[in-house]
Design a protein that fits this description.
homodimer, alpha/beta, Rossmann fold, 3 domains, 5-stranded parallel sheet, 5-stranded mixed sheet, 44% helix, DNA-binding
DNA sequence: TTGAAAGCGCTACCAG
DNA sequence: CTGGTAGCGCTTTCAA
């Protein structure tokens, strides 16, 4: 930069301003600077020096639970990520991916990340990465919870949503079952009964389960006998596998309503129902969550919310483009699966 | 760091070494340093200063054609990305996402990216971003092409693969059709005939098309009458849509073989075939590409290659962990779809 | 194994 | 609108 200044016959500061705040310098100065820069093949301020001096990196991190692979395989996480990417484009900021493996190294990665803030995909209650993030003193926003001091939270009211969708899905049902998102980081596939939602370590699972429990009771049914099938990942094939297990019982106990926690899982359930030759919604009703395009194509009754908007909002808050997290709008979409 | 040095009663360099190369200093010095650091709540070297001084960022970028959304929606791109992420974990390096929108701003983004190298997802021939990347003087590796001076290339021989899979898919066929990956950045959905592969602007599409053309001629058929359906994105639903169009012709011209350029597209074709009540492979044979798990579940004959390994290898080369790009192994997997 | 000096390239700050 | 100065926090280099 000093060389450019010399060549242009101006001060170093004029060069700096020409690149950083072009409108601050006169047109003639700017022209001289850019001409000299071109001449010397100077491509612009050095990023590292800029960061050192300004204390900013112009990057944000998006932190994903577990392997990045899960994040990419999950359609809902992808929508969220797209929203984050959009905000980064708005702000001309870089987007760093930060895996949150659940191992000790995560804390170091967070501390050392060359970023100005963190957008976090929902993780388990008491994840130590949240304290690590707060410890950096940088802004952070988490989607879906858990609520954590010093971290903004974006997401819908999952309990209320679950109560509302259950009211639709359970109309006339006698033997509902639930297909649940993963329970904890172990990601075991299992069928449980008499479930205490409070034991689920992922906040989204816990809250939707709480709502489903309430919904079941509101429908005058017994929660203790409701089977809850927990999947390992939020994928259609997992939903189908679990639905097959849940439906593989004597006729007298055959489920007549499936409350899934996501559209992917619900779509899998629809696959299983089709395979088994059952009638939808007469033999069994199905509800999902998120209102993806595939869900609307399939006529799935679901909870509508925009993960893209949440990703965008979360990132904009972290980037300082938005002042605060906006409340998330949601609604129940009734379709032919109920 | 100076404060820590003072508190520990050692030189600044001993502090620096304690963090950067712990084995270089004596145990006692290290202990003193870490104790002082803890006391002063010093969390470790400042990233920006480290980068300024060392000239390294300890980050690599992965550059995706067009919107990031496409990258995330594409199952194959995702596998590749997972491989890149794995390598970053090996190297303890950060992973930055860099969108390549095809607009002028891309060049600036590349130039300003705080990274040590670039892993590039396949893009169009003559994409100006490639020159921009070379212009940074940083290492780069592209998957799938185009071949570009100064950029390493990882990927299989698509022409040979296409010839080989076509030989299987076209056995006994009279009226083959092709379902092609996007043609260019316009991403128009269209059905073409008498196609000149050389006109395709995505190298992967061009090369596979070249191989399919050869395969068709090898089978003693006329290429000029082969319909090539080009999709907008590599998604199952797009494959199904295109297959329906291609199959929606009078019986006498009904396709009896579908050469798809990806498993996703091929799986979509299988969906369409099932809907239409056609017999697989008797009425129509289908081949795909990549050998995803969904493809093997569906009994799809396909070209097997590992995008994960390619992503990992590409990133390791860029990170300097591997010396050179390894040749990609591939094979034809024969299953029940042919 | 430890240390001193120099300076990476830039921008905040203040002055004109 | 332009410019001078100082110093961000570290590591490279060289020396002991």
């Amino acid at each position: 930069m000093a060389d450019v200044a010399k060549a242009a016959g101006v001060s170093v500061m004029s060069v700096s301003y020409s690149f950083a705040q072009p409108e601050r310098v006169s047109e003639s100065t700017r022209a001289k600077v850019f001409a000299a820069a071109e001449e010397l093949e100077y491509a612009g301020p050095n990023r590292a020096a800029q960061s050192l001096r300004s204390g900013k990196f112009n990057n944000i991190a998006v932190v994903f639970s577990e392997k990045l692979t899960y994040a990419f395989e999950d359609a809902v996480a992808r929508r969220f990520l797209s929203g984050v990417a959009e905000a980064c484009l708005d702000a001309n900021a870089g987007l760093m991916m930060l895996p949150n493996s659940g191992k000790p190294g995560d804390v170091d990665r967070v501390r050392d990340a060359a970023v100005d803030g963190f957008v976090v995909w929902t993780t388990v209650f008491d994840d130590p990465i949240l304290d690590a993030i707060v410890g950096t003193g940088k802004p952070a926003c988490i989607q879906g919870g858990p609520l954590h001091e010093g971290v903004d939270l974006v997401g819908m009211d999952d309990v209320a949503g679950a109560v509302a969708i259950a009211a639709v899905g359970l109309s006339g049902a006698q033997r509902p079952v639930v297909i649940s998102l993963p329970w904890d980081r172990e990601r075991r596939s299992e069928i449980r009964m008499d479930v205490d939602p409070g034991e689920a370590l992922f906040p989204v699972s816990r809250h939707r389960l709480e709502g489903y429990e309430r919904g079941v009771r509101n429908a005058g049914l017994e929660w203790s006998s409701v089977r809850v099938g927990v999947v390992t990942v939020n994928e259609r094939s997992e939903g189908a596998r679990m639905a097959r297990s849940l439906l593989d019982v004597p006729v007298s106990r055959k489920p007549d309503a499936i409350l899934a926690m996501s559209d992917e899982l619900a779509l899998g359930a629809l696959d299983a129902i089709r395979e088994l030759g059952l009638a939808l919604p007469d033999d069994v009703a199905v509800v999902g969550w998120d209102d993806t395009t595939a869900a609307s194509d399939a006529g799935l009754t679901t909870v509508r919310q925009s993960l893209f908007d949440q990703g965008r909002n979360a990132a904009r808050v972290v980037l300082g483009l938005d002042d605060a997290v906006e409340p998330v709008e949601w609604s129940v979409r009734r379709r032919t699966s109920t």
